């Protein structure tokens, strides 16, 4: 099972043992769902409402209490599956009273060939108390996002029109979206998995992308210029991708565009940022001051056109520029820009792939596919100050997620054995806090509350932050 929160993301919900990280681009990571149907935070239930299940007998989890705040027993040897909706954790119970297990793919709580009756339980993160029980018929129950990245869930059903002898039989899937409080947000006809993001339907339109709000409003087209240019959407990562440039398809109030997005163009590939509300372009890498450390060609352009939007927050955008030529590996420069003035605020050495802490104030170097990984480093995103970096002779730590307060970094180490093992380190000092954690004991994190949860063969266990 892949525990990476990595880039799937914008869906803040996940199956037990998994989490979402591209949500950290805007800090959605599990607010209380106030944006678009999530509802206000409910009063904390009294102690008598706390669910009491089996006791936890696994290894200690740094950053969390020693014993679980609440738990539910396993169904056989499988823990109940859960989607993290920020202010609630969602579970699905079938007609026989059994919970859907945690063994499905990331973001998918339930899947069946035919629609089946289910009871969706929206449980309080801190106590396990059922805030709302919703009876549905569903083929799938999966994590999506609503406006501004608010966690939501899509419950799908389908209808099939029979063939008249000439036309083929046709199956149409409809998704009903619910917020963290169980309130209905919208119905989406002709639904396909991976085509909903922040309440927008993502559609391929010729060689570019179109964003259409499912509850009405103007559509937005992603600019994609250049001979034979073709801009695409990576649903797992939540990114729009051009030839060598990448950006989150939606980040808060913005969506990207791409200029000269083809190998056939002589001008450098550029990324623009545009307002969702108006479609107006507000920023572009074409106008951005190139930070120190980025190698330039004889025209004053960066040697490499590779660049990516890493984060948008507090009126600023963090851009990753590849430092050397496209053929060289390695060095990247991170640069913060003010979206209003366009001014370059600060820059420092960074990494191509980054895992952010929930608040976004810390970052860890992440694995790049098809490249040797020397291990991680941790730095402050505001100024690039490095807290530590792994050295030769250490097992490479592949970061998985930070605790909500950023004090502990969980990851996996490859010690050349058959399976990777979990490890927890102090984010500030690199001190090892726990090692040899079974993969299932790497906790997922509910960033709205700081609680953590794991699904093991004994059950689902939810822990208060230490």
Structure, briefly:
With 466 residues, the protein is an all-beta fold. It has no helices and 33 strands.
Instruction: Briefly note the structural class of the backbone.
Output: mainly beta
Tally of contiguous helical segments:
0
Number of individual domains:
1
| Principal-axes shape call | globular
Q: Strand tally, please?
A: 33
The stretches of 5 or more residues where confidence is low (pLDDT under 50) are 1-45
The CATH topology comes to Methanol Dehydrogenase, Chain A
Average pLDDT, to the nearest integer?
Answer: 88
- Range of strand content: 35-45%
Largest sheet: 7 strands, antiparallel
| Percent of residues in helices | under 10%
Task: Assign the CATH class.
Answer: Mainly Beta
Question: Roughly how many Å apart are the termini?
Answer: 26 Å
Radius of gyration of CA atoms, rounded to a whole number? 23 Å
Instruction: Give the strand order of the largest sheet, numbering strands 1, 2, ... along the chain.
Output: 2-3-4-5-6-7-8
Query: Can you tell me the CATH architecture?
Result: 8 Propeller
How would you describe the overall organization of this protein?
This protein has one domain: 8 Propeller (Methanol Dehydrogenase, Chain A), CATH 2.140.10. 0% of the residues lie in helices and 42% in strands. The chain is built from no helices and 33 strands. The strands form seven sheets. It has a seven-stranded antiparallel β-sheet, with no helix packed on it. Strands 13-14-15-19-20-21-22 form a seven-stranded mixed β-sheet, with no helix packed on it. Strand 28 (408-413) and strand 29 form a beta hairpin.
């Amino acid at each position: 099972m892949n525990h990476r929160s990595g880039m799937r993301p914008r869906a803040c919900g996940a199956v037990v043992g998994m989490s979402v990280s591209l949500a950290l681009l805007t800090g959605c990571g599990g607010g209380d769902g106030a944006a678009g149907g999530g509802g206000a935070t409910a009063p904390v239930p009294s102690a008598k409402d706390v669910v009491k299940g089996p006791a936890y007998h696994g290894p200690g989890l740094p950053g969390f209490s020693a014993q679980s705040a609440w738990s539910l027993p396993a169904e056989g040897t499988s823990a109940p599956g859960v989607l993290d909706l920020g202010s609630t954790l969602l579970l699905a119970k079938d007609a026989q009273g059994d919970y859907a297990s945690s063994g499905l793919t990331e973001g998918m709580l339930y899947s069946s060939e035919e629609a089946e009756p289910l009871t969706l339980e929206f449980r309080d993160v801190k106590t396990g108390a059922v805030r709302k029980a919703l009876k549905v018929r569903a083929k799938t129950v999966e994590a999506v996002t609503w406006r501004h990245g608010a966690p939501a869930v899509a419950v799908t059903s389908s209808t099939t029109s029979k063939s008249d002898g000439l036309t083929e039989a046709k199956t149409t899937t409809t998704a009903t979206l619910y917020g963290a409080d169980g309130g209905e947000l919208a119905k989406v006809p002709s639904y396909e998995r991976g085509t909903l993001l922040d309440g927008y339907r993502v559609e391929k339109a010729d060689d570019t992308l179109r964003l259409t709000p499912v509850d009405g409003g103007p559509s937005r087209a992603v600019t994609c210029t250049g001979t034979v240019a073709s801009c695409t959407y990576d649903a797992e990562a939540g990114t729009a991708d051009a030839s060598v440039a990448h950006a989150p398809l939606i980040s808060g109030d913005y969506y990207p565009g791409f200029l000269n997005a083809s190998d056939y163009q002589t001008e450098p590939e550029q990324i623009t940022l545009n307002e969702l509300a108006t479609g107006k372009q507000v920023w572009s890498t074409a106008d951005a001051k190139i930070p120190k450390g980025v190698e330039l060609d004889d025209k004053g352009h960066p040697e490499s056109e590779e660049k990516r939007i890493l984060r948008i927050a507090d009126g600023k955008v963090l851009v990753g520029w590849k430092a050397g030529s496209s053929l060289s590996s390695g060095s990247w420069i991170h640069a913060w820009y003010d979206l209003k003035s366009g001014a370059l605020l600060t820059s420092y050495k960074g990494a191509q792939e980054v895992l952010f802490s929930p608040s976004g104030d810390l970052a860890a170097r992440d694995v790049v596919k098809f490249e040797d990984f020397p291990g991680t480093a941790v730095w402050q995103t505001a100024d690039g100050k490095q807290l530590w970096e792994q050295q030769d002779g250490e097992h490479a730590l592949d970061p998985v997620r930070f605790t909500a307060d950023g004090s502990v970094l969980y990851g996996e180490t490859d010690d050349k054995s058959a399976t990777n093992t979990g490890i927890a380190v102090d984010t500030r000092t690199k001190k090892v806090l726990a090692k040899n954690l079974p993969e299932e004991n790497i906790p997922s994190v509910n960033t709205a509350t700081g609680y953590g949860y794991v699904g093991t063969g004994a059950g689902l266990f939810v822990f208060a932050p230490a």
